[in-house]
Amino acid sequence: MADERDPVVVIRKLHNELVRRRPVIEKAHDYYDGAHNLAFAGEKFLEAFGGLFGAFADNWCGVVANAVEERMTVQGFRVDKEVVADKVAKKLWEANDLDLQSAMGHLDGLISGAFYAVVWVGEEAGVPEITVESAASAIVECHPKIRTRKTAGLRLWLADDGYEHAELFRPEGTYLYRSKSKRTGGFSGDPLRLQWVIEDQLDIASELDQDGMMANPLGVVPIVEFLNMPRLTLSKRAGWGAHSELASVIPLQDAVNKLVADLIVGSEFAAFPQRHLTGYEPADVIDKETGKPTGQTIAPDFKSGPGKLWWLEETEAKFGQFDAADLSSSVESIELVVQHIASISATPPHYLRASADRLSGESIKSAESGLVSKVSRKMKGWGAGWEEVIRLAGLISGDAALSGAQSMETIWKDPETRTESEHVDAVSKKKDLDVPAPQLWEELGYTPEQIGRFPAMRAQMQLEGMAANAAERARLATTEADRLTAASLAATGGLPAATTA
Q1: Which of left, alpha, beta for 279 (phi over 0: left; psi -120 to 50: alpha)?
Q2: 1, 125, 397, 473: least CB-packed within 10 angstroms?
Q3: Residue 237 backbone phi and psi in degrees, to 5
Q4: Cα 96 versus chain centre, distance
Q5: What letters, b where the CB count within 10 A reaches 16 and e where it falls short, cover 154-165?
Q6: Residue 167: C-alpha distances to residues 122, 164, 178, 184, 292 (Å)
Q7: Distance between CA atoms of residues 113 and 480, nearest Å
Q8: Taking Cα atoms as reference points, which of 166, 164, 167, 148 lies closest to residue 224?
Q9: Ramachandran region of residue 272, left (φ > 0), alpha (ψ -120 to 50) or beta?
Q10: Side-chain half-sphere of 16: how many Cα atoms within 13 Å?
Q11: Domain locations in the chain as residue ranges
Q12: The pLDDT of residue 492 is above 70
C-alpha cells in the first residue's frame, strides 16, 4: 500500500525524533571523550575550588566501549554454497572501505546506542555506494505493527552552503529537500515548524520530479539500522528502543570523578604533617604616631636549633604536629566503584586495574567470559544488519547470488582470547573428527582471502617439491654412476674397462 503522506510531514516527524535523541547521544560521546561534569560535588566544594577540576576526568567510559569494539571485526561473508558470491561480497565490502567504516560504526553504535548504513546507487552504474551514518544524523521509521517492515528513512547533513539537507527514503522513491533558511549557527527552534524546500542543486535538480522525488530502483528503504541492546519497549532514559553501552556506567563514572577529586584535594591540603604552635602570644604592632595597636601582630621569631627544629625563647611556647590524613580509604572507595563498573558492564577486571601480570591464562579467560558472551550477542544482531547491507549492494550491482541469498552468514574474527599453542592444539584435535580443512583454517583465524589462496599455494609447493625431488634423483644417479666408474677403474688397474677388454 503506497504511502500517501506529504514528504515534508514525514521529514519533520523524523527530524523531530532525531532532535529529541541528540542530547542523550551527545552526553554519551562527551563521557567517552572524557568531557565530564563533577556531578556529585557539593556547593561548598565548588565555591572553594571553582573550575579547578573542570577539565578533570578519570575516564573509564572509553575503556568500557573500546573493550567491546576491539573484538568486533568483520572478516567476510559466507553466501550459501556460492564461493564466487563470497568473493563478490568481500569485493563490495572493500570497495566501500567498510573495514574502516564498520569499525567506526561499531564504536559509535556502542556509545550512541545505534548506527546506520545507507546503501545507494554510486556515481558509476552498477556500483553501490555504502556509507555508515551516526544515530544523530540518520533514522528509520518502521511499521507500527510489524517492526521488521521499514516505511521510511531519513538522512540529514549540514553542507558548506549553510543549509541543512535531507534525504527521505521511501520504497517508491527518494525525496531530496533542504532547509529554507541557512543554519550555520544551528537550529534551536521547533523542528516540526522548520521550513523545507525541494533541493535546487544544479547537478541533481534535473533528476527530480515536481515533488522533489527521485526514483528508487531498490523498491525498499535502503537504510539499515544497527541497534545496541534493542528492546521492544522504549527506554525512558534514552527515549527510544536502543541503549548506550555507557548509560549504566555514567553515574558510576561521576562517583569515581568525585572520589578522585577528593583524593587530590586531600593530598594537597591534608596528606602532609601540619605543625602547630601553642602558648605563644604574638606581640601587637604599635603605631609610632598614636601609640595604639594597629590590629596587626608581629610574626614569631622562630630560631633554628640543634637538629634543625624550630624553637622559641618563651618557655610556655610549645610546638606540635597534626597527623597526616590517611588517604587509603579514598583509594579503596575508588577501587570499589571501579569494580562495580566492571561488573555492570561485563568488562574484565584486569582491563580496569594494573594487575593482569599476576593472572594466569585460565584466570584471564574466565574473567573475559562475560565480555565474550556480550560480544557474541552483538555479533548476531549486527551480523544480520551487515548481511542486509550486502544484499542491497548485490541488488544494485546486479548480482543475483547476493541479492537473492536467503542464507548468508557474516564471518567475524574470534572474540575469545586464546594462547597460540592452546588454540592450535584444540583445532588439531578437531582434525581427527574429520572436520574439513577450510573450516579448521577459518577457526585458526585465517581470513577468507588467505584461505582462498591456500590451494594455489599448495599447488605451487607441490610443483617445487616435484622439481626438488627430480633434482635430487638426478644428483643421486650421477653419484652412483661416478661410483661405478671408480670401481671399474680400480678393478682394471687404472685403465678403462674397454681398454683391458
Answers
A1: left
A2: 1
A3: -75, -45
A4: 19
A5: bbbebeeeebbb
A6: 15, 10, 9, 19, 84
A7: 77
A8: 148
A9: beta
A10: 12
A11: 7-250+374-391, 275-321, 423-501
A12: no
Tell the residue number behind the cell numbers 547521544, with chain if given: 25
Type and span of the H or E element at 132: strand 128-134
β-strands 310-311, 223-227: how paired? unpaired
Report how far apart, in Å, the C-alpha atoms of 374 and of each of 160, 307, 416 are.
Answer: 40, 63, 11
Q: State the DSSP H helix or E strand holding residue 156, giving kind and residue range, or none if neither.
A: strand 150-158
C-alpha atoms less than 13 angstroms from C-alpha of 305 in its C-beta half-sphere: 7
**Segments in 419-496 forming alpha helices (H):** 420-431, 437-443, 448-491
371-403 pLDDT, tens per residue?
A: 999 999 999 999 999 999 999 999 999 988 888
Q: Cα 32 from chain centroid?
A: 10
pLDDT digits (tens, 9 = 90+) for 348-373: 988 887 555 566 667 778 888 899 99
pLDDT digits (tens, 9 = 90+) for 459-470: 888 887 787 877
The whole-angstrom separation of Cα 441 and Cα 448 is 9
User: Over the chain, what is the mean pLDDT?
Assistant: 81
The answer to which of 126-135, 215-224, 335-344, 450-459 has the lowest mean pLDDT is: 450-459
- Burial 89-110, CB ≥16 within 10 A → b, else e: bbebbeebebeebbbebbbbbb
- Put the strands of the sheet holding 223-227 in their side by side order: 128-134, 114-121, 223-227
Q: Which run of H or E residues covers position 176? A: strand 173-179
CA of 387: how far to CAs of 42, 226, 376, 394, 403, in Å? 51, 12, 16, 10, 10
Residue in this structure with the C-alpha cell 548481511, named with its chain if needed: 387
Distance CA 151, CA 170 (A): 6
Neighbours of 249 (CB within 10 A): 24
Mean pLDDT of the 410-428 span: 78
Distance in angstroms (rounded) separating the CA atoms of residues 441 and 458: 14
| Cβ atoms < 10 Å from Cβ of 353 | 11
Q: What is the pLDDT of residues 173-187, one digit of tens each?
A: 999 999 988 876 555
